[in-house]
Amino acid sequence: MYNNADERLIAGESEEGIYAALGLDWVPPELRECRGELEAAAAHRLPHLVSLADIRGDLHAHTDESDGRDTILDMARAARDLGYEYLAITDHSQALAMANGLDEPRALQHAARIRAAAREVEGLTLLAGIECDIRPDGTLDLADDCLAQLDLVVVSVHSAFAQSPPR
Predict the structure, then answer these.
(1) How would residue 167 be classed by pLDDT, with cut points 50, 70 and 90?
(2) pLDDT (tens digit, 9 = 90+) per residue, 85-101?
(3) Which end of the chain is more exposed for a tag (fewer CB within 10 A), N or C?
(4) What pLDDT is stored for residue 3 in this prediction?
(5) Vertex 123, ends 117 and 128: CA angle to 5°?
(6) Are 91 and 102 a contacting pair, CB within 8 Å?
(7) Helix (H, G, I), strand (E, B) or coil at 114
(8) CA angle at residue 75 from 84 to 58, to 5 degrees?
(9) Distance (Å, rounded) from C-alpha 155 to C-alpha 56?
C-alpha cells in the first residue's frame, strides 16, 4: 500500500504485508464475512482451512458410464496420482435418464467393472457406489437388494423440488 502523496510504501507489497503492518494474521478470502475474522486475526486464532493437501479421497465421482467424461481406470489412476487413498465411483441411477443413469442390472455390472479396476490400480481403495435418486414419494429408484451389493450409496433429489410438505 502506497501513500498517494509521495508514492512511499507504507504497509506492504502484498495482502499479507498489509495485514502484517496492521498486526494481524492474513485472513484468507474464504473467511472474509464480517463475522469476527479480524478479531480472530488479531488474537492469532484464525481457523485452519482445508487445503488440497488435506484431501485424502473423493466419495462422489461420475465416469463415462453416466454423465462423466472418463473411464473407471482413468479416474482411478488420476485419483492415485493425486495422492488420494480412496475413490468412490457413484454414477447416476436410472431416474436420471438424461444422464444415462444406471438401472439395476447396469449398476451391478458397473460395480463388477469397478471392482475389477480396483485390482489393477495399486495404492488406491476403489469403491463401487451409485448416486441413487430420491423419487417424489421419498422412495429410492433402485431396489434395496441392488443397493446392498454396493460399497456406498449417495442419495440425491433431482426433481419435484416444489412439493408441498406432508400433512
Answers:
(1) confident
(2) 999 999 999 988 888 89
(3) C
(4) 65
(5) 40
(6) yes
(7) helix
(8) 40
(9) 22
